[in-house]
TrEMBL record:
SUPFAM superfamilies: Peptide deformylase. PANTHER family: PEPTIDE DEFORMYLASE (PTHR10458:SF22). This is Peptide deformylase. GO terms for biological process: translation. Its EC number is 3.5.1.88. Pfam families: Pep_deformylase (PF01327).
Length: 196
């Protein structure tokens, strides 16, 4: 089932997600619905807060990035084959050089900004069967994971741009929260007046 994606301005996007366990009701159905929702919106990642749930769950499928001709064959293969659910993720370390990359977000449509992040991360997480992993990721894969991890920490990519950029984006962000935007996927707007 395709779920509505929560728009910028909804308080759930600012909450730190709670950990879940294998008794979390309807988890497998939720994961299936999140995959369907993400693909319907042409996303490469989706976090539970973006569908209104303040829990530590997100997913990533980087296959759309695999067509980038500027990447090495090894990088293309890594991105083409990476599809993962992350449960109860905890960032262990962010290392390596920092680099800017143009990011967008399904909860903040029509806004893209350069965000600087570390190129290597180490993450402890569980998969949807609650098997635990500690893995290191780098490059675009690390970036996508960092973006989704931020969501379960109550952080948005617009928090990471300069204060000048934030001021310039304020009007657009307000319009998004009021539903004054055209998108081709289902959204839930926090400030949309009833009856409009």
């Amino acid at each position: 089932m395709i779920l509505p994606i929560v728009a910028y301005g909804d308080p759930v996007l600012r909450k730190v997600g709670a950990e879940i366990d294998k008794d979390y009701e309807g988890l497998q159905t939720l994961i299936e619905n999140m995959w369907e929702t993400m693909y319907n919106a042409n996303g490469v990642g989706l976090a539970a807060p973006q569908i209104g749930l303040a829990i530590r769950l997100f997913m990533v499928d980087t296959s759309p990035f695999a067509d980038d001709d500027e990447l090495s064959e090894e990088e293309q293969n890594q991105l083409k084959n990476f599809k993962q659910v992350f449960v109860n993720a905890q960032m262990i370390e962010e290392t390596g050089k920092t680099w800017p990359f143009n990011e967008g977000c399904l909860s903040i449509p029509d806004i893209r900004e350069d965000v600087t992040r570390n190129d290597t991360i180490t993450l402890r997480y569980q998969d949807e069967n609650f098997k635990e992993y500690t893995e290191t990721f780098d490059g675009i894969l690390a970036r996508v994971i960092q973006h989704e991890y931020d969501h379960i920490q109550g952080v948005l990519f617009t928090d990471k741009v300069s204060s000048l950029k934030k001021r310039l984006l304020k009007g657009k962000l307000t319009n998004i929260s009021k539903g004054k935007i055209q998108v081709d996927y289902r959204m839930r707007f926090p400030l949309l007046k009833k009856g409009r």
